[in-house]
Amino acid sequence: MTALEAIAAELRQAERTGRPIGPIRERIALDADAYGIQKINTRHRLAQGGRIVGRKIGLTNPAVQAQLGVDQPDYGTLFADMDIDHDGVIPWIAGAQMKVEAEIAFILGRDLPQADIGMGEVIAAIDCAVAALEIVGSRIADWNIRFRDTVADNGSSAFFTLSPAPRLLREIDLLDCGMELFRGEERVSQGRGRACLSSPLNAVRWLARTMAADGTPLRAGDVVLSGALGPMVAAAPGAVFRAHIEGFGETAIRFGEAA
To answer: Which of 60, 102, 111, 235 could lock 181 by a disulfide, CB 3.0 to 4.6 Å apart?
Structure first.
């Protein structure tokens, strides 16, 4: 077993047992090695019957990038068993350190295989956009992460839910749409579309180019979570989260009670 395979196995065990591990960044020499660990666990999940349904983009807020000492986003892989129904229930998982953030998701209608993809081609490839909630979770104890920790940990991903009200791009304002995230009746986060790399479409183009250059291009039907529009908020047993994004309607998720 290589050093990267050993770290990948530790992350899988942390997810399986609900017992996070310490930071791993000092054990990873290169950013590419962190993505290598992510790919090892992606292959493992596929071998266990998992199915890829899209990708998520993280670190799209400049303030968060500065905090982690990077100047670009990162990505993770979305699997079918991460997709939760609108207003569905996520069982409470002790130790999963789950948090919630609201964002815009895009559903692709065409493949994006070019590493030099232009914005016009990105726009033409998008079938629709929907409001989304991403439920993130870290296998690193106390969310003590930097860039290589979260990349190796599949972008700190856990679950996601999509609004049942898709929109065409010409129907929405991606820049100035206001977002409000509620926990129960309390507003706990807010933001606008332009908080995501100045435009969520910038995030999609970055991802399309990155994935094509990596040899794993985005495909028709893929879900792309484009990045948070406001601060993420810690989940709790029994909590109900609802996000409203102007022009998109809303989507919601519930957490089960602690065992």
So the answer is: 102
Structural domains in the chain (count): 1
Instruction: Identify whether the C-beta of residue 170 lies closer than 8 Å to the C-beta of residue 127.
Output: no
Residue 136 sits in a domain whose CATH number is 3.90.850.10
Cα–Cα distance list, 70 to 73, 119, 140, 148, 202 (Å): 8, 24, 19, 10, 17
The residue segments making up the domain with residue 49 are 3-255
Task: Return d(Cα 22, Cα 39) in angstroms, integer.
Answer: 20
pLDDT, residue 70, reads 76
For 145-160, b where at least 16 C-beta lie within 10 A, e where not — what string?
bbbbbbbbbbbbbbbb
Where b means 16+ CB within 10 Å and e means fewer, 178-200 reads ebbbbbeeeebbbbbbbbbbebb
Counting runs of H as helices and runs of E as strands, what totals does the chain give? 6, 13
Token pair of 175, please? Answer: 């820049």
Which of the four pLDDT bands, split at 50, 70 and 90, describes residue 30?
very high
